Amino acid sequence: MTLPRPTQIMRLAPIVVAAALCFVLATSASGSASAPRAHAAQGSHYYLTGIGDEHDEMFSNPLWKQLHTKISRYIAPYDAAVRPYSLQLARAWIHAAESQHQQILIAFYHSEYTPTKLPSVAQYQHDVQKFVKLFPRVKQYEAWDESNRGNVPHSFSSPSASAAAKYYQALIRVCQGCSVVGLDVLDQANITPTERYISEFKHEISVLHTVMPKIWGLHNYSDVNRLQSWRTHDLVKDLGGQVWLTETGGIVQFNPSFPNNHGSGITRASKALKYMFAVASSTPQIARLYVFDWTGGVDATRFDAGLTDRKWRPRPGYVVVCKALHAAKCNVKTVND
Predict the structure, then answer these.
(1) How far is residue 264 CA from its own chain's centroid?
(2) 39 falls in which pLDDT band (50, 70, 90)?
(3) 3-state secondary structure labels for all residues of 50-100
């Protein structure tokens, strides 16, 4: 029997020319049956596309199966291995993903039990090492999800850039042979604090004399939901190296900036998803794109970017993703509420 989930703290001048947008919607190159599905931009730029979600039910959904994506992302509390309930949820999700031959990316995040208390580096390393040992087939990790998000009083805390660098170092120590995303940041409407955070993180990496990350994570919600791309391009340049859009997508509801009045958010989200693909295709450094997320919320949900509604019925945004991935049956009946 599946136990009820604890309340999740959800997150969470355009450069792309119109021709790129038209191209990415009209054409894409599919991966082989054994490789993740990819998109081809003009030229030779390919990137992998997958879904990020916290519900293992996604993997049994026929609508998800027809997308034939081979990469997926899950956000796990850093202490999941030592918290039976958090571990139960993570294990169910990972087993469901593995049964569908997914390449799994795990992003560690705050504890569901002590969300406002950041762990010491020693405690973090102890807990994530246990997690890594429990799931030996998982080889891709992020040290901390949206580490620059900041603190929300009485809800959760986020690490400083210095602490994030130390968590990254701890993770690569206990997960040798893994691909570890060095830093996972949210763009935000004003990217100046994000750029400062990236600079401080890199400085701390140098102080620690540890290896500079080769893969970086970016959530570019602010850009794609405003149909803009300058934030993405500036931050990709600041990060350097290979960039994974570890979270991106069309926001249905995130008040007050993105309301869903009479279904307006659902229409807006589908437009943002179209633009999302164009931005990724215009940026050669982007190697992966994880759409967040599969499962929508209710009217009172603070953040909702679901490709489906709370009953897993497809929204128009699902059709956008479906057609971009060249799935067979994309003309499905959608819901707009």
Answers:
(1) 24
(2) low
(3) EEECCCHHHHHCHHHHCCCCCEEEEEEECCHHHCHHHHHHHHHHHHHHHHC
Q: What is the pTM of this model?
A: 0.87
Angle between helices 161-174 and 121-134 in degrees, nearest 10: 40
| Other residues' Cβ atoms within 10 Å of the Cβ of residue 291 | 28
Q: Which amino acid makes up residue 196? A: R
Q: Which two tokens stand for residue 267?
A: 């229409």
What's the one-letter identity of residue 257? S
Domains of the chain: residue spans and CATH: 19-324 (3.20.20.80)
Is the pLDDT assigned to residue 293 strictly greater than 90?
A: yes
Residue 337 CA to residue 316 CA, distance in Å, equals 11
Which two tokens mark 325?
A: 């991935």
Hey, which bits of the chain come out as E strands? 38-40, 46-52, 71-77, 103-109, 140-142, 179-181, 184-186, 215-219, 242-248, 253-254, 286-292, 303-304
Q: Is 166 helix (H, G, I), strand (E, B) or coil?
A: helix
Alpha-carbon distance of 309 to 77, in angstroms, equals 25
